[in-house]
Amino acid sequence: MDDINTTRDKDRLEIYNTIILAIATLAITWCSYQSTLWNGIQTFRLSESNKYGRLAQQKVIQSGQSKAMEEGMIIAFVNAAFDKDTSKVNFILRGVRPDMAKILTDWLQSHPFENASVPQHPMVMPGYEELMKSRLKESEDLSEKGGEAYREAQRANQNGDNYSLLDVMFGMVMFLGAITTKLARIQLRFTLTAISSIICIGCLVLILFYMPIAHKG
């Protein structure tokens, strides 16, 4: 009778181990696939972060270059206005962008040479300050996009690491399942099977309910 019970216990253990090993094998494949996808996402997000960082620096450089060119043009405009050189004033207004032409025109129409309360030159006009802020805003927006892409890369890296850790856990399940078949004592085999089942179920719960899923494409 004991031999019959022992045989039945062994048969049940083999069935349990087969099921656990099959689940662990599929889970390892899935986790490896997800880890690869998340690593790819991390690479692309880091590339985007670097791109936005370069664009932000370009905007800062362009803004500085534009300001340097505008300083020379504004000096020439102020001198022409001070000398009442109308032809030169009009020439400068025709050669600048509409937003800058409006700033210069507004400054000139405020009679700066007669009115002490008026800004002494166009670069301290509210319109010019708003123009500079808008240029810097473009750089800040690009920097923010770069920062967000970097944070997404960090999250992708963490997700990839978590899936790799789950790979290790399911590998442990397969290891326990493998050595279980080599043990002679039924009680010890049941204990190891129970441990591997608990680990397997816990990891499956994490995958099904807590781990984000990456999609290809």
Unreliable spans: none
Quick one: how many beta strands?
0
Distance between the termini: 60 Å
Q: Overall mean pLDDT score? A: 89
Q: Main beta sheet: strand number and arrangement?
A: none
The rounded Rg comes to 36 Å
Structural class: mainly alpha
What's the oligomerization state? single chain
Domain count: the total is 1
Helix coverage percent: over 70%
Order of helices and strands: HHHHH
Tell me the fraction of residues in β-strands, as a range: under 5%
The gross shape turns out to be rod-shaped
- How many DSSP H or I helices? 5
Task: Give your account of this protein's structure.
The protein has helices spanning 2-82, 86-95, 98-109, 126-180, 186-209. It has 217 residues and is mainly α. The chain has one domain (2-209). Helix 1 packs antiparallel against helix 4 (126-180) and helix 2 packs antiparallel against helix 3. The chain is rod-shaped. The mean pLDDT is 89.
